[in-house]
């Protein structure tokens, strides 16, 4: 788990919503203190995907915070996708609902066919997904002290 200091540095750059999913917990919202309170309930032995939002598409609201979820599949994204968002949804949620989730339904989460198709959608972005506690990462992640980061701009 990143330290509170690191989380604070990331928050300064990405302050439009906070969310996470772990093996046993899920939370997303606009209040950083509430986010930290819920995150503190995650134990060290749980895999966890944390997302800090910098809004590019869609309004700043809880619904547009990551991760997004459909049928127990959780999805978080860093980057901008070449897709026309639907209504007030983000480009991330639009891609998840229209392209990624149907791919998983067709080929199965974690299959080589699904992974290949999702990598094609991902392009230069970074995706993090979780289903039944299994995390899958797509794109160029950086590892620092055993933690995967979608970027290190906060350094």
**The CATH C-level class name:** Alpha Beta
Mean pLDDT rating: 97
Q: Provide the low-confidence segments as ranges.
A: none
Q: Work out the count of structural domains.
A: 1
Distance between the termini: 16 Å
Note the beta-strand portion: 25-35%
Sheet with the most strands? 4 strands, antiparallel
What are the secondary-structure elements, in order, as H or E?
HEEHEEEHHEEEE
Shape: globular
Count of distinct strands: 9
Report on this model:
The protein has helices spanning 4-13, 32-39, 91-107, 112-122, and strands at residues 18-22, 26-29, 48-52, 68-70, 73-78, 126-131, 134-138, 142-144, 147-149. It has 155 residues and is an alpha+beta fold. It has a four-stranded antiparallel sheet with strand order 4-5-6-7, with helices on one face. Strands 2-1-3 form a three-stranded antiparallel sheet, with helices on one face. Strands 8-9 form a two-stranded antiparallel sheet. Helix 3 runs antiparallel to helix 4 (112-122). It is globular and about 40 Å long. 28% of the residues are buried.
Topology:
Elements lengths: L3 H10 L4 E5 L3 E4 L2 H8 L8 E5 L15 E3 L2 E6 L12 H17 L4 H11 L3 E6 L2 E5 L3 E3 L2 E3 L6
Antiparallel strand pairs: 1-2, 1-3, 4-5, 5-6, 6-7, 8-9
Helix pairs in contact: 3-4
Brief characterization of the structure:
By secondary structure, the chain is α+β, with helices and mostly antiparallel strands.
């Amino acid at each position: 788990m990143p330290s509170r200091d690191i989380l604070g540095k990331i928050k300064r750059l990405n302050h439009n919503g906070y969310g996470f999913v772990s093996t046993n917990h899920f939370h997303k919202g606009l209040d950083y203190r509430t986010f930290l309170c819920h995150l503190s309930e995650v134990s060290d032995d749980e895999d966890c995907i944390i997302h800090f939002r910098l809004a590019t598409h869609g309004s700043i609201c809880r619904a547009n915070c990551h991760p997004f979820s459909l049928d127990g599949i959780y999805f978080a994204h860093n980057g901008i996708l070449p897709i026309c968002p639907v209504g007030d949804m983000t480009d991330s949620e639009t891609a998840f609902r229209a392209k990624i989730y149907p791919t998983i339904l067709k080929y199965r989460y974690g299959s080589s066919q699904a992974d290949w198709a999702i990598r094609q959608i991902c392009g230069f972005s970074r995706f993090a997904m979780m289903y039944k506690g299994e995390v899958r990462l797509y794109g160029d992640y950086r590892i620092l002290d055993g933690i995967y980061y979608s970027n290190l701009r906060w350094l």
